[in-house]
Design goal:
Length: about 400
Amino acid sequence: MELLNPIMKLAAMALAGTAVAMSPAAAQVKLPSSVTMTAYDTGTSGFNITVAVGKMFKDKYGTDARVLPAGNDVARLQPLRLGRASISAMGVGVYFAQEGVFEFATREWGPQAIQITLSSIDCNGLSLAVAADTGVKTYADLKGKRIGFVVGSPALNQNALAVLAFANLTAKDVKIVEFAGNNAMWKGLVNNDTDAVFGSTISGPAKELQTSPRGITWPAMPFADKAGWERVRKVGPYFTEHDATCGAGEFAKDKPIQMGTYPYPIYSVYGSQSEDEVYTLTKAMIDGYDGYKDNAPGASGLAVKAQVKNWAVPTHKGAVKALKEAGAWSDDQDKHNNALLKRQEVLAAAWNGYTKGSPASDPAKFTEEWMAVRKAALAKAGMINTFE
């Protein structure tokens, strides 16, 4: 609750607009009178896309949308967990929440039965943005440099480490500088408090850095460097190679920069949310695509035909229903999805067994014990364990 109230007070925003007459397609969708969504900080690509979706809800369905920005994964997921939000524009923190690792390997959280609806992969990339005045040309040049981390945001921090791993660097090879939130971290990069931070090439803060005296650069992660990419996936198994062609920096469709990506934003819900509720939200986003696809950079990546297949977190059954109706679901996806749902069951059972026993009272010891229990449960079920 302490996390939620400041967000409610400082970040709630109503997206006003004039409702238009319902089209036949819209009439099939009956959204509630209001929808609350959570997203990263204001100005980030995830926030901007969510605002665009919210405006479409108002224009097409007459539904008022409220977007709650939050600087880390825990704060963004908390309103959804408490039933005070219907959907959350998550990053890869949704995967960490499912796995019950990092900030979710605590007594207050544990593995979450979090599932996805629609997600975006577009022309942008996700990597370490580097201040141009550092003279860094490759990620190997970051050795000894300052890298921004966000307290309570394992997604951002783990992603930064995954990119460093491409250059065979670890946290010990750089200087970690911690910030309270994502926007604060980017401000720190502009103000010369750090040298590189993880983010999207199309985020507002990235454009701000580009126009600042420091400038911006995104070193390439050549696909030909197989060993480098193998190291990336050991730290961030959700990364894929991607030709980035848009964003703050020297991007062009005919001159892509090879780097990594994963779906972002990932519109997430809890598995316990009703099939009808999630179906309605997903279908509204599918049917209303033309109403928001051009209104924020990256929003076009939410096209139903562009949805990532067989990813690391299962799709909610309500979203599956909407995707099937749109002709964007296959038997192969069904098989993969069922295996992921089984994984969530295994993790939940392991957590319940551990917490009903005599877990350590010390937070650090609690996490250590849980990770050992988690590892054993996955091994018994014949499932991979990315986190040791």
